[in-house]
# Entry
Amino acid sequence: MSEKLKVGILGGTGMVGQRFISLLENHPWFEVVTIAASARSAGKTYEEAVGGRWKMDTPMPEAVKNIVVMNVNEVEKVAASVDFVFSAVDMSKDEIKAIEEAYAKTETPVVSNNSAHRWTPDVPMVVPEINPQHFDVIEFQKKRLGTKRGFIAVKPNCSIQSYAPVLTAWKEFEPYEVVATTYQAISGAGKTFKDWPEMVGNIIPYIGGEEEKSEQEPLRIWGHIENGVIVKAEEPKITCQCIRVPVLNGHTAAVFVKFRKNPTKEELIDRLEKFSGFPQEAGLPSAPKQFIRYMEEDNRPQVQLDVNYENGMGISVGRLREDSIYDWKFVGLSHNTVRGAAGGAVLCAETLKAKGYITKK
# Structure
């Protein structure tokens, strides 16, 4: 048996579950040994359970095709086979909270793509380049759960990845007011154009719950730990509109920012290009070498040309210019199902392993 950590994917048949499986193919540290899903998929091979619903551009990895899918509700049985799990289950928020806690209480770390625990006070919500120190709250969470190695960690919403890292890179200039409009791909709803033909040539100016997440989640990421819980930051104030657009992968954001200090364009671009964090310092396997790149061309970043920058783990920024009402404005682009979903969670797990939170059972 290899020295790799044994990984389970909860909700492995859905779009994000499939993305986890494709990203973890040939991963140097992690090996998918268990896939769990609903009772209707349990007992089938992964290939049979997914059938014609494989949504990735790359073929299904051979190594997972014959894995027999387990029932995600058989928590003890699934947990016994793995060192930790990624969670991408499709259930109600209350059901997700309950099942993720149940796995954590079997002493199995849970790295979740779901939103259910993003506001649980002692659950860290992390973009590893921005706030890896929030993983320190895990010790308090373990006390609450009564565990020695089991815990839950989450990654934030996909929509904030194209602007929250940018604002973090500019922290020294004190951004205090932000207007952002996100143009979000249909894969964010777990769909392809085949599933959702009415999105072809269409825009829907509403995505349930997304605007609240886009306004509030960055503040939690920029927050601090106090008395064993994460306290969110007060600023910058963010107001958002979130629009579904006819794009398969890639969330674009048009953003306006007011600063207390008066940066030059050169300073702003310099801070973007130099911005890095723990994943880059530690050389983590999924870390982009350059997290944020600035593009000088007037017509970039573009989804078709730029969404896969740094294997989908990097962020592309362009059109930085002074604004007549706000101070500066820019356009950001991130891959919503790689950096914004499964890839962001894989990078969180790599960070947790590097920091000693995830080990062999």
Observations:
- The chain is about 25% helix and 20% strand.
- The two ends are 14 Å apart (CA to CA).
- The first helix runs from residue 15 to 23.
